[in-house]
Write a structure and sequence with these properties.
Blueprint: E1 3-7, H1 12-23, E2 27-32, E3 44-48, H2 54-61, E4 66-69, H3 83-103, E5 109-114, H4 122-141, E6 145-150, E7 156-157, H5 158-164, H6 172-187, E8 193-198, H7 206-210, H8 212-223, H9 227-233, H10 250-256, H11 264-276, E9 285-286
Parallel strand pairs: 1-2, 1-4, 2-3, 4-5, 5-6, 6-8
Antiparallel strand pairs: 7-9
Helix pairs in contact: 1-6, 2-3, 3-4
The structure holds nicotinamide-adenine-dinucleotide.
Length: 293
Amino acid sequence: MLRIVVTGGAGIAGQAVCSLLAEQGMAAVAADVAPPRQASPSGVTFVRCDTRTPGDVRQVTKGADGVIHLAAWHCAHNPPVSDDTIYAVNVDGTYNVLSACRENGAPPVVFASSMAYGWGSVYSATKVIGEELWRSYHEMTGASVASLRYHDFVPKPYLDFGMKLLRNGVDVRDVASASVAAMNAAVARRFGRFMTIVHTAHGMPLEVVRDFRANGPAWCEEKVPGATALLQKYGLDRDLPGGVEQHDLSEAGRLMDWRPEIGFVEFLQDLKARDARGEDVRSLHAPGRLPAE
Ligand SMILES: NC(=O)c1ccc[n+]([C@@H]2O[C@H](COP(=O)([O-])OP(=O)(O)OC[C@H]3O[C@@H](n4cnc5c(N)ncnc54)[C@H](O)[C@@H]3O)[C@@H](O)[C@H]2O)c1
């Protein structure tokens, strides 16, 4: 059985990744400074590990068949953390994980990068440095490395989350499925070094992508009957984007056998079901995902 270490395994992405690894029959080790808030499912073991402490990471990566490196502080944390802490965890911590991996047989690595990559903040600079560190790791060891530039899955009110899917938002289940698909592909050595964006794929025709405000409501209505009335009822029709942000994810499909599954249609279906049950969707919070039915 493959033993996959997930740094930051108690976080939002970390818990989803660990659960999916366990579901797919792997032993997931959630290595984090803090334990997860919810009980871990069977197949997931929590190990306390501070990536800033080389001995902790050396210990936890011993015998690992792969490492998914998620541990980081980001700008959306509330209360905020200092740039010094962001740098220490995201850069020094990443270096320690890299060194430990070199000592422990150079397992394949999936690195959590970000669409904030290179965007004028210490956090975004740490993701540039992180991608570079893992590029060097690949060059030094030959191990397969994937850098995944996730879009935004920071917790937010449910309706905001849905609308964000048309812009720069992504569901944490797609973040988890991309991370595990990347690990499976790295273990199978389907690439040496690979980078992809992790985002939605709504399957919209080009005219809808280009002018959602004009063409989106009719397309939504066709996919989810009643959608236009729902958009109006919740005031979402006032927040429609002109163009929808979409990226070419075909290489991720080819190399990692991955495609996102949660888009605006799935959000509308979920909203429709909740509305029909009389739920107060305005008070719901989406921890980066549509809450379970
Ligand atoms: N949330 C987003 O929208 C988003 C977008 C792009 C990229 N990312 C990246 O995805 C990864 C996961 O993000 P998330 O939103 O799940 O964050 P999160 O805060 O929910 O999880 C991060 C985890 O890292 C842990 N951690 C912090 N310092 C640590 C240390 N020194 N040693 C070990 N563990 C430590 C925290 O305890 C936490 O459980 C991060 O690398 C983040 O930069 C997140």
